[in-house]
Specification:
With 287 residues, the chain is mostly helical. The chain contains eleven helices and two strands. The protein has a two-stranded antiparallel ribbon with strand order 1-2.
Length: 287
């Protein structure tokens, strides 16, 4: 990671990659249908690292599925609490018992949860009567469908990485937890020497791999150290503070790294116009 300290301005270069890595090609090991997340030029995609850190295909698949289920539960339970609970009855502000409508008024001290739950038809009417609830449910459904499509695409990617681990690195899925990342990295380097996955780079080093895995993080740390990102504020009485929530971090990453208008055209290469010194002022204005 980039360290806290002074930065010196370097001469402008047209190429973003180190010498010798400008036109790197990806060669797929014989017998594989894809590179399994081992995306060169010049390094290793974060996917293969995350696959190891998250304990393989089954764990990653279940994690994504449980996230979808969790989102459904949160939306359903929130809607139920907003529209299907009579809080006057729940807190004994009104002596009404939905479960025993014909019975005498219940004792205020003995209100039960079923007494406060509205009947299903009444609950549905309250949902239909609220335009905001319907709008939020539609937005939640659209987001869930988007996440579902993304999860399905991710599962295909996970399967390719699993195949790469098994066929290229000779690491079985059930034994992945027994291999450290250093061992996986050593096998990647050894595989490069034997198979030449990276056509124009004969030797793959640990630095190449970490450069690809940590590239965006290193950019972020450098921009924070240079005070280019708005994360430091001076508040009256409290003095200087650092404020970087997950939401703000997500928006900064979307803006700079992987959004439709980001500075990168893929996971490792800057857009050509970003490398030209004469275009920087115009690019900064657009950004």
């Amino acid at each position: 990671m980039a360290a806290q300290g002074e930065y010196q301005r370097l001469e402008d270069f047209e190429e973003d990659s180190p010498p010798g890595e400008e036109e790197l090609l990806v060669h797929v090991t014989e017998g594989l249908q894809g590179d399994g997340g081992f995306s060169l030029p010049g390094g290793c995609s974060p996917n293969i690292y995350h696959f190891h850190q998250k304990n393989g295909f089954a764990c990653m698949m279940l994690s994504d599925i449980f996230e979808l289920v969790q989102f459904l539960f949160v939306v359903t339970f929130t809607t139920f609490l907003l529209c299907c609970v009579d809080y006057d009855v729940l807190f004994a502000n009104r002596p009404l018992n939905h479960s025993h409508a014909s019975a005498p008024a219940p004792d205020r001290s003995k209100v039960t949860l079923p007494d406060a739950v509205l009947p299903a038809p009444q609950c549905a009417r309250r949902i239909r009567a609220s335009g905001w609830i319907i709008f939020l449910l539609v937005m939640a459904a659209a987001f869930w469908l988007y996440r579902l499509v993304k999860v399905l695409c991710s599962l295909l990617s996970y399967w390719e990485i699993r195949t790469f681990y098994i066929k290229a690195l000779n690491i079985p899925s059930e034994g992945l937890c027994n291999y450290s990342w250093q061992e996986v990295q050593a096998r990647l380097i050894s595989l490069q020497r034997r198979q030449q996955m990276c056509v124009h780079k004969r030797e793959l080093t640990e630095l190449d791999i970490y450069h690809r895995i940590l590239r965006f993080k290193n950019y972020t740390v450098a921009m924070v150290n240079k005070s280019l990102l708005p994360v430091r504020f001076h508040l009256p009485l409290l003095g200087p503070i650092v404020f970087l929530t997950q939401g703000l971090k997500y928006n900064l990453e979307l803006l700079l790294f992987w959004g439709p208008g980001s500075l990168f055209q893929n996971k490792w290469t800057l857009r050509p116009q970003c490398k030209r010194a004469g275009a920087r002022r115009e690019l900064a204005r657009r950004l």
